[in-house]
Amino acid sequence: MHGHGGMEPHAHRSFLSDFILGSQDGLVNILGIILGLSAASTNLKLLLIATLAALAAESISMGAVGYTSTLARLKMYRAEERRELREMKELPEVERGEVREILVEWGFQGAVLEEMLDRFCANPKAMLELMMAFELHLAPVFEDEPRKSALTVGAATVVGSFIPLLPFLIYPYNFTVDVIASVVLSAGTLFFVGVYEARTTAGSFWRSGLQMLLIGLAAGFAGFLIGHFLGAAPL
Predict the structure, then answer these.
(1) How many domains does the chain have?
(2) For residue 80, is it within any domain?
(3) pTM of the entire structure?
(4) Which of 43, 48, 111, 209 has a Cα-to-Cα distance from 35 of 20 to 30 A?
C-alpha cells in the first residue's frame, strides 16, 4: 500500500531506536554482572564464563523481543488499514468529513479546501495514507521490519555487551584495574549514546547523556550491591 519514498526517515528512526535499545540493554546487563561478580570474587575465568553466557542468552532474548514487538505493530497497522479501507467503501461521506477536518486543521479554507478535499477523496491511496498518519497517528510498518528489528536489536545487544568486557579481554592481568576501566568505558559509552540520541531527536545533549549514564550506572551499582552482600553472606 505504501511506496518506499517516505520510508527512509521512519526506517532510520526504527533502526536507531532498536540499536539504542539493544546496545544499552547489553551494556547495562553485562556491567551489572561484572560489578556483581567482582564484589564477590576476583576469578577472571568465572567472570568471562558468566558474562559470555549472559551475552548469548540476552542477545537471543532481546532479538526475540524486537521481533515480536515489531510484528505486533505490523499486525495492528494492517488491521487499522483494513478497517479504514472498509469505512472508505461503506461510509464515504463520514470519511470525507474526517479528511475535511484534517485539512481545516492544516489551515485550508474556502475554494482551496474544497479542491484539496476533492483531490484526496479521488485518490484512495493518498486518502488512506492521510487517515493512517493524521487521524490514527500510526507510522507505516513494512513487512520486513520485524526481521530487521530482531537482527538489529540482537546485534546491538552483542555490541553493547562486549564494551564492559573489553578491558578484561585486552588486559587480563589486573582484575581491579579492569573493573575500574570497565566502569569508565561503560559510563563514557552510555553518555555518548545519550548524546547521539539527543542529536537525532533534538533533545538536550547533556540531559540525555547524563540520563542514559545514570540509568546504566544505577543498574550496574545494583549488581555490585547484590554481589557484595551475597559474597559476604555464608552460604
Answers:
(1) 1
(2) yes
(3) 0.78
(4) 209
